[in-house]
UniProtKB/TrEMBL annotation:
<dbReference type="GO" id="GO:0004674">
    <property type="term" value="F:protein serine/threonine kinase activity"/>
</dbReference>
<keyword id="KW-0808">Transferase</keyword>
<dbReference type="InterPro" id="IPR000719">
    <property type="entry name" value="Prot_kinase_dom"/>
</dbReference>
<keyword id="KW-0418">Kinase</keyword>
<keyword id="KW-0067">ATP-binding</keyword>
<dbReference type="GO" id="GO:0005524">
    <property type="term" value="F:ATP binding"/>
</dbReference>
<protein>
    <submittedName>
        <fullName>Protein kinase</fullName>
    </submittedName>
</protein>
<dbReference type="InterPro" id="IPR008271">
    <property type="entry name" value="Ser/Thr_kinase_AS"/>
</dbReference>
<keyword id="KW-0547">Nucleotide-binding</keyword>
<dbReference type="InterPro" id="IPR011009">
    <property type="entry name" value="Kinase-like_dom_sf"/>
</dbReference>
<feature type="domain" description="Protein kinase">
    <location>
        <begin position="51"/>
        <end position="321"/>
    </location>
</feature>
<dbReference type="Pfam" id="PF00069">
    <property type="entry name" value="Pkinase"/>
</dbReference>
Length: 331
């Protein structure tokens, strides 16, 4: 492995220069990770001396993500470590552990690979994952507002393939949003990775339930009506709605339902209909052929909604004049 002496990112042995800072990379054996008083984990080696922390990648409500060197495997990994106060909550820790179990049971090229679940020396818990280089869809939308059709179709087609694996096993993600869709840049285009299975609903026989009936789980802007109501009868079609909300935002530059508070957003989702994409996204050239596809994806009743994310992806591609199915457009 090599590292950049400016930003301390880790790279494979065959890399030459840091794409962020332009610095010539040096072998990790000739460098040391930085130390910072703001976070004692940076520069430390955790989990029985296996993971050497090199830098902070991101912060979230549950925890902080680091890039680390797996000293045993000789590879770069991401460590998501719970915040101290979250690590004291038994239900949060159980959800975190279930994220590991569910993700590890869903090996798929479009689902982030989870490698381990560890207890840290500072009394927290770590989820060990493959390290991804790229950006979240949220970052792209903040910068570019919308996605061009070819990029949108490729993304939703890959989402359909990854979610089909989960849905076949009766696992509902329940928190699909631009923040949980990671776009890995490759020479051939985006490679989608679905993140964060910590809010899943496992409908398989005998699965343990962690959500009390009437509790809403998910992000309000992307939540289906049945999620908004906290209904017990919730299946993969809730994810269809969420992906439709993401597609809507990708073509219009705005979410389909908007209000000033979370509860008001949920009321809007349950009681009103979004504008047709061709109207909401007129400034970006959203086609009228997309309107009936989104109308079916946003049906309030799951029984009337598009049956799968694959059918939604098919509809999006055909709205842009493509022949075939999402399996043809994913790569």
């Amino acid at each position: 492995m090599k590292t950049c002496s400016a930003c301390f990112r880790l790279f494979s042995q065959d890399s030459g220069f840091c794409p962020v800072d332009g610095q010539r990379l040096i072998p990790v054996a000739e460098a040391s990770p930085p130390r910072t008083p703001e976070d004692r984990r940076v520069g430390a080696t955790l989990c029985g001396g296996r993971y050497q922390i090199w830098r902070i990648v991101a912060d979230g409500g549950m925890g902080r993500v680091y890039q680390a060197l797996d000293l045993r495997a000789g590879r770069s990994v991401a460590l998501k470590i719970l915040h101290p106060e979250v690590a004291l909550d038994e239900v949060s820790v159980e959800r975190f552990h279930r994220e590991f179990q569910v993700s590890a049971s869903l090996p798929h090229e479009h689902i982030v690979e989870v490698l381990g679940f560890e207890r840290t020396e500072d009394e927290s818990f770590a989820l060990v994952m493959e390290y991804l280089e790229g950006e979240e869809l949220r970052t792209v939308l903040k910068r570019d507002k919308v996605l061009p059709p070819e990029r949108l179709v490729r993304m939703v087609s890959q989402l359909a393939l990854g979610l089909a694996e989960a849905h076949e096993r009766k696992v509902v993600h329940r928190d699909l949003k631009p923040d949980n869709i990671f776009l890995v840049g490759t020479r051939d285009g985006d490679r989608v990775k679905i993140l964060d299975f910590g809010s899943v609903r496992d409908n398989s026989e005998g699965a343990k339930k962690l959500t009390v009936v009437g509790t809403t789980i998910g992000s309000p802007f992307y939540m289906s009506p049945e999620q908004a109501q906290g209904l017990l009868a919730l299946d993969h079609r809730a994810d269809v709605w969420s992906v439709a909300a993401i597609v809507f935002e990708c073509v219009t530059g705005r979410v389909p339902f908007h209000a000033s508070t979370g509860p008001m957003i949920l009321v809007a989702i349950m009681g009103s209909n979004p504008l047709p994409p061709s109207e909401a996204g007129k400034a970006y050239g959203a086609p009228a052929s997309l309107d009936p596809v989104m109308e079916r994806a946003f049906m309030k009743s799951p029984e009337a909604r598009l049956e799968s994310v694959g059918l939604l992806a098919d509809g999006v591609g055909r709205a842009y004049g493509l022949a075939g199915s999402h399996r043809d457009w994913a790569y």
